[in-house]
Amino acid sequence: MKIRKAVFPVAGLGTRFIPATKAMAKEMLPVVDKPIIQYAVEEAFAAGIEQIIFVTGRGKKALEDHFDKSFEIEHALKEKEKEDLLKQIQELVPRTGTIVYTRQHEPLGLGHAIWCARDIVGDEPFAVLLADDLIQTDKPVLSEMVNKFDRLRASIVAVMEVEKSQTDKYGILNAQMVEEDIVKINDMVEKPKPDEAPSNLAIIGRYILTPKIFDILGKKEKGANNEIQLTDAMKSLLKEQPIYGYKFNGQRFDCGDKVGFQMANLAFALERPEMRDRLIKFIKEIQKDF
Ligand code: G1P
């Protein structure tokens, strides 16, 4: 079955970026000149996704406006004959009806946010993208996962090795290698302390899940941080269905973290020929003071 729908949990308050996020959605923070959310949405469309489901909350209006037509800007760009920019902002608006919004009324956890999309997803496998996880790679991660899903016919999550001291920030796996870039998951735990973690193999924010997960999430059992965790639901799903991990190639940035966000900006800016030389010159200059 084709993966047609992708859920984007975007209700988070972004408290780590206050004051920037006082009146603005954290997903709208730009990496170079593009909001974080747009990278993930482009990745989803490139993977053949036909419907984007945003699970939003209060204060996310800018996010909805970003993917909507802007008559004022289009008009101004037409007048100024800025055809390139005009084309860019027109292409940003997906075909009418492609984006669906629903709300998570209370911050009860990632698992709960996904559960909020159950009726829109229905009875078919679907993708989940956490926009905070920005991945620089030649092989867009979700496209690779869709291909792997076609072959394995089972849920699959993106995984990478993290520093052992960092395990309490992630869902951590007990898994075994079954192919060059695929692990089969035996067990998983959300945010374990380093000395309790089964490994240093962490879940990164790309998932393809079977709809069975909604039945489990519907039980609303709370886990780490007293939240309804997606990892806990996947752990239960493991009793009935296999789940695989895809070890992607590429550099992942945690844009939910201030340092990770700065690193992402630098890495993506260095990819731009028009910015690269000046930035390298600047880095070399300030490096002398380190
Ligand atoms: C979430 C998931 C966690 C995963 C992480 C990846 O945690 O709960 O399992 O490893 O995303 O970024 P959060 O970052 O929302 O605390």
Structure at a glance:
The chain is of the alpha/beta class.
Describe what this molecule looks like in 3D.
The longest helix has 15 residues, at 273-287. The strands form three sheets. A nine-stranded mixed sheet has the order 5-4-1-6-11-8-12-10-9. Strand 9 and strand 10 (182-190) form a beta hairpin. Helix 3 runs antiparallel to helix 4. It has a single domain (5-160, 179-188, 202-250), classed as Alpha-Beta Complex (Spore Coat Polysaccharide Biosynthesis Protein SpsA, Chain A). With 290 residues, it is an alpha/beta fold. The chain has eleven helices and 13 strands. 1-O-phosphono-alpha-D-glucopyranose binds at residues 110, 130, 133, 170-171, 190, 202-205, 229-231, 256.
Give the secondary structure arrangement, pairings included.
Layout: E1 5-9, E2 30-31, E3 34-35, H1 36-46, E4 51-56, H2 61-66, H3 71-79, H4 83-91, E5 99-103, H5 110-115, H6 118-121, E6 126-129, E7 133-136, H7 141-152, E8 155-161, E9 171-179, E10 182-190, E11 201-209, H8 212-217, H9 230-237, E12 243-247, E13 251-254, H10 258-270, H11 273-287
Parallel strand pairs: 1-4, 1-6, 4-5, 8-12
Antiparallel strand pairs: 2-3, 6-11, 7-13, 8-11, 9-10, 10-12
The structure holds 1-O-phosphono-alpha-D-glucopyranose (G1P).
